[in-house]
Inverse folding.
């Protein structure tokens, strides 16, 4: 990985001249182009460290139907790793770019007999990743089609063409046999488990030879996960064979996993079998309701066309000028697609869902969602939803609040499938909720009750150092791991509570949390100029290396968290004695010493900036605050051009449920939310000469930079609807007004358009 990283960063800003848009080309917006869903390449990020899946999903859908290579390990967290050449199943649930592996539920796999089975071949493998995978197929990337809402591949040596598409709750597969076969078999493996996942119990009933119904219960990252399903096939099976795999328990309490084989005889070339599989987190009856509501027929092409149309409509909310190179359009629209995969739908068509209290609840209006990677997504993904999909953002917020109410008054940290995973740190559901309130997207029915929920989350006793944090204003490094990171993240979240209290007029509570939001100061070390681990007795740790990855920091070092005070950049600058610009220069130019081994999370490095992980995603834009916006432009364009590409290794870090892609969408359009709570977006030179956003209020926002070129990439002036704009940022309200934001550019560094 280090060699690949070095090669990637070695490209430098020289790529700008090769990819710059020709100045003389017409800037009309694209018309009569292929559907935007076909601009998406879902193979981007399936190599290197992106950890994304290439399969089919509806926007924010419950189903993520995608191929699995059949192997475990870091590279296979999403089930699929581009360098592999095997497929062992097509399962209906996957995670998008996370750092831990789970799900892979309800896996089907078509074969013809005899099957490839590497368990029958002696193996000298010593690693889990290379262990035998059982019955599988080979495939070539040349046969893959990977677009928004559609995936296809040919399985060898079986000569079966597999196609996948989906609705909100239903995965649809079509298996087309390209040659005659005496015996074909579709395997449903409900015992399958990889990485953190393990099967607790599963079962399936063949209601008819063409109708299956069952469940899979598992435990892993998602604790106590329950997935129910129903499947209908276009052709009844000629014979069904059931195998049980013993699990936990004894006697009548014994549990087992189930593998079902559906046999088909005398299959002819050109014949297809279509499978429609609906999921539910509530019951098999719920799955059947979902199936009947969304997938009542067997016409695969109609489902595919609907998925393509739905995605094209979503993606078409942002249009790029027609002179944008194809590679950049693919990169952009794939990022916009990835940003709308998570959170995932969790309620059935009738509003039913399994709550955090393990009881079935029913939403009367809207839908309930799950899979909230909040440590990542509060930074840019949720602000993007506030801009493009505020009604969905409201559903997301209500889902978080409902989870907190059902979870003993504790809002989620990282939840999915009715469980709290407790992954990562902070209580970042709070800024997501408060941002929605401040933007007018969510209006609480009971303001005081919501404040109580925010406070009960922040005042939780015996949880991750919060007791000491409340008492001393920091967490002792001798009492709690990740003490520096937790202190800084808690301070940001407390600022969100202060803003909410101010919004509702409770100034006493506001002052309490304003002070807590300044807790970052307690860890500042004037001698070193860093936030340093401090012991519970007040003494700073004696050994400190800002380059070292220690237990005091979350997936980071002291450099990565140096600027993690998004809510009080002015206060941070004062701690730095007014040398914010100098510290930024130091951050982006300091090489990693030879004695430091970079962890897997530190990728996309520019000096000590790690774009492959989230804590520093806002830092580039602080050059605006330091009155050196030309550096914002240079670094932003370097990241956009070098660390995002249209190739399988085109993500330099975990996608993290949309955050990496949301960063690209914002930055390429020309603005970014350093502090989402503030409602301010720092301006930067766009990547495109012109882009148009269709706002949800019916207005249109056009961002234009007609002089953009390799040389002219620095902002000289900005106008909004023809009026000079003399601020480094634009507000949410200004964006939602629509109109035109026009960037006049120059080739001269040093230009500043604001006061």
């Amino acid at each position: 990985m280090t060699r690949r990283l070095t090669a990637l960063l070695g490209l430098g800003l020289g790529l700008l001249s090769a990819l710059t848009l020709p100045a003389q080309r017409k800037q009309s917006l694209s018309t009569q182009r292929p559907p935007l869903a076909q601009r998406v390449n879902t193979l981007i990020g399936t190599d290197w460290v992106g950890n994304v899946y290439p399969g089919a999903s509806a926007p924010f859908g419950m189903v993520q139907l995608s191929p699995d290579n059949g192997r475990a390990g870091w590279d296979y967290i999403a089930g699929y790793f581009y360098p592999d050449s095997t497929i062992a199943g097509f399962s209906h649930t996957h995670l998008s770019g996370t750092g831990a592996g789970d799900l892979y539920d309800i896996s089907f796999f078509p074969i013809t007999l005899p099957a490839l089975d590497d368990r029958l071949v002696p193996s000298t493998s010593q690693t889990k990743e290379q262990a035998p995978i059982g019955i599988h197929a080979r495939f070539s990337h040349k046969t893959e089609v990977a677009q928004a809402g559609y995936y296809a591949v040919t399985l060898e040596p079986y000569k079966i063409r597999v196609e996948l598409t989906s609705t909100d709750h239903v995965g649809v597969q079509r298996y087309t046999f390209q040659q005659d076969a005496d015996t074909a078999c579709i395997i449903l493996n409900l015992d399958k488990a990889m990485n953190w996942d393990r099967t607790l119990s599963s079962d399936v009933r063949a209601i008819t030879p063409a109708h299956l119904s069952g469940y899979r219960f598992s435990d892993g990252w998602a604790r106590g996960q329950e997935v129910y399903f129903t499947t209908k096939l276009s052709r009844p099976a000629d014979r069904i064979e059931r195998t049980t795999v013993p699990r936990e328990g004894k006697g009548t309490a014994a549990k087992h996993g189930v593998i079902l084989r559906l046999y088909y005889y005398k299959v002819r070339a050109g014949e297809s079998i279509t499978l429609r599989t609906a999921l539910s987190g509530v019951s098999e009856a719920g799955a059947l309701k979902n199936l009947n509501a969304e997938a009542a027929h067997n016409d695969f092409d109609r489902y595919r066309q609907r998925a393509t149309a739905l995605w094209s409509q979503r993606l078409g909310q942002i249009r790029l000028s027609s002179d944008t190179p194809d590679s950049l359009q693919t990169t952009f629209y794939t990022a916009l697609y990835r940003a709308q995969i998570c959170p995932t739908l969790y309620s059935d068509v009738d509003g039913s869902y399994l709550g955090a209290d393990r009881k079935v609840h029913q939403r009367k209006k809207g839908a309930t969602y799950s899979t909230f990677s909040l440590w990542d997504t509060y930074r840019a993904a949720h602000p993007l939803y506030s801009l493009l999909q505020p009604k969905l953002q409201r559903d997301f917020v209500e889902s978080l609040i409902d989870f907190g109410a059902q979870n003993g008054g504790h809002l989620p940290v990282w939840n999915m499938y009715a469980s709290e995973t407790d992954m990562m740190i902070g209580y970042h559901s709070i800024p997501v909720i408060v941002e929605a309130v401040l933007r007018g997207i969510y209006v609480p029915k009971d303001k005081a009750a919501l404040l109580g929920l925010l406070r009960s989350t922040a005042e939780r006793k015996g949880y991750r150092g919060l007791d000491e944090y409340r008492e001393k204003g920091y967490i002792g490094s001798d009492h709690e791991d990740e003490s520096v990171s937790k202190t800084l993240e808690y301070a940001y979240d407390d600022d969100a509570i202060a803003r909410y209290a101010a919004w509702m007029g409770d100034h006493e509570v506001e002052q309490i949390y304003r002070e807590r939001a300044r807790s970052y100061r307690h860890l500042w070390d004037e001698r070193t100029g860093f936030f340093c681990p401090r012991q519970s007795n007040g003494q700073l740790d004696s050994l400190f290396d800002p380059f070292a990855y220690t237990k005091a920091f979350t997936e980071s070092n002291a450099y990565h968290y140096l600027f993690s005070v998004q809510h009080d950049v002015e206060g941070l600058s004062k701690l730095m004695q007014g040398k914010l610009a100098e510290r930024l220069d130091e951050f982006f130019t300091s090489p990693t010493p030879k004695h430091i081994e970079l962890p897997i999370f530190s990728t996309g490095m520019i000096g000590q900036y790690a774009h492959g992980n989230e804590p520093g995603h806002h830092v580039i834009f602080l050059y605006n605050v330091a009155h050196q916006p030309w550096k914002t432009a240079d670094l932003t364009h370097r990241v956009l051009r070098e660390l995002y590409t249209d190739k399988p290794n085109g993500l330099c870090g975990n996608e993290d449920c949309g955050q990496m892609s949301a960063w690209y969408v914002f930055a390429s359009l020309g603005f970014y939310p350093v502090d989402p709570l503030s409602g301010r977006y720092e301006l930067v030179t766009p990547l495109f000469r012109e882009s148009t956003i269709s706002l949800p209020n019916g207005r249109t926002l056009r961002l234009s930079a007609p002089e953009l070129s390799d040389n002219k990439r620095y902002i000289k002036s900005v106008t909004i609807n023809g009026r000079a704009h003399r601020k480094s940022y634009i507000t949410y309200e200004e964006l939602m007004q629509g109109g035109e934001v026009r960037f006049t550019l120059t080739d001269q560094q040093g230009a500043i358009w604001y006061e």
